[in-house]
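Entry type: protein chain
Record version: 2
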Amino acid sequence: MARIAQAAGVTPTTIYWYVDDKDALLVAALDHLLADALEEFDQQAGAPLIDQVLWALERLSRHRTLIGVVHARSEHASVVATWHDGFHALMDSLVTAHLDKQGVPEPDRTAAARLTTFAVEGLLSHPTSAAETRAVLDIVLSR
């Protein structure tokens, strides 16, 4: 927190006026990044689902290092774990809504949404070539 305060040109006490601790600061930063991404995501609404997921992967890959931080902190900080669970729920709901419009029946769309969310996290944590990424998503979304 001291380094962040120094970089911002304020005292650490000033930061604590706005956030309780470093985990709350992390969640605030994540919320900001996610809000920006969701604004841009609206422009992807008409694209095929695989293209939307590939777009999300590209956008999220800019912040790839945060994935490990979120997973590590989730084990120790409930505020980060709650954010992580919410991110999964959001991803699941976006994919489920798209599959619902395509007429994919339950429980297939819920399972496909969950697998897509897991695939996104996995592909972000373990980057692959564009071709391999598309192949993975093709398999996950082909059902």
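Comment: The chain has a mean pLDDT of 91.
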